[in-house]
Amino acid sequence: MKKLVFFVLAISLSIFILKTGNSLLLAESAELTYPLLSSSEWGTEDFNHGLHISFNDGDKTYTKSMQGPGGEACSGPYELKKGKLYLLKPKEGVIKKNGVVCKPMECTFKISSTSLYHTHNLRCGKDESYWLSLKKLPAGTKRYIGKIPVVTMGYKTGTVKYNMKMRLGPSVSHGVNKCSIFTHDGGGKTKKADLLQKGDFVHVIARTVEESKVGKYNGYWYYVDLGLYDKETMSCEKDKAWLYGPLIELE
């Protein structure tokens, strides 16, 4: 009878593991494993263009790639030792391709308590930092942007309902984010702007903890990603800004 119960429990656990997929690999633990490394791609904190890395658990090789137009890539072997990741020298020797470097590096792994986007972080060498795309920070998590307490929003897409200024902080007394917009008016001119236009989209990262009154409205300020990687005709001093929540329609 005991053997039968054990067998049933084993089958039930196997089904549970199959259904939950990678979720068991992503428990809130600072232990780095081969399955965790290969469970998803690792990239920049906000997963826009930049340096990404992926791991093949089969042949124990990694691939670094620069995301975006004309991005380069290189590969090499890796191994885990005592909880640390080591990127080893490729067979061809050290590889350097337009900002992508494959060479021996030691990487440390941690669960982040500060990121607005993800929880699992790899720090490789002095300058490279990668975040596990599969493990996103849940909406409703309390964080800080500088000294400003915020609540994360889960990277929701929002549409601007009225022309509005892009503030450098969560109030109308803060300065504005300066942008340049390339116009297709025959002359190919660039004009300065500090307004988002009605119908523009943004990605809402977090909101203030407290609501505030602006004119006839009362609501939160949103900390947003302006989505400049998808706006080929627009460049700004900052790719993040504060917008007044009541003037944004969330999807």
List the helices and strands and how they pair.
Layout: H1 2-20, H2 34-38, E1 42-43, E2 51-56, E3 61-66, E4 73-81, E5 84-87, E6 95-97, E7 100-102, E8 105-111, E9 120-124, E10 128-132, E11 142-145, E12 148-160, E13 164-165, E14 179-182, E15 190-193, E16 195-196, E17 201-208, E18 212-214, E19 217-219, E20 221-225, E21 234-236, E22 240-244, E23 248-250
Antiparallel strand pairs: 1-10, 2-3, 3-4, 4-5, 5-8, 6-7, 8-9, 9-10, 11-12, 12-17, 12-23, 13-16, 14-15, 14-21, 17-20, 18-19, 20-22
Description:
The protein is mainly beta. It folds into 2 domains: 27-132, Lipocalin, CATH 2.40.128; 142-250, no CATH class. It is built from 2 helices and 23 strands. It has helices spanning 2-20, 34-38; strands spanning 42-43, 51-56, 61-66, 73-81, 84-87, 95-97, 100-102, 105-111, 120-124, 128-132, 142-145, 148-160, 164-165, 179-182, 190-193, 195-196, 201-208, 212-214, 217-219, 221-225, 234-236, 240-244, 248-250. The strands form 6 sheets. Strands 1-10-9-8-5-4-3-2 form an 8-stranded antiparallel β-sheet. Strands 11, 12, 17, 20, 22 and 23 form a 6-stranded antiparallel β-sheet that branches. Strand 18 and strand 19 form a beta hairpin. The chain is elongated and about 65 Å long. The termini are far apart.
Features:
8-stranded antiparallel β-sheet, disordered N terminus, 251 residues, 2 domains, elongated, 2 helices, mainly beta, Lipocalin, 6-stranded antiparallel β-sheet, 23 strands
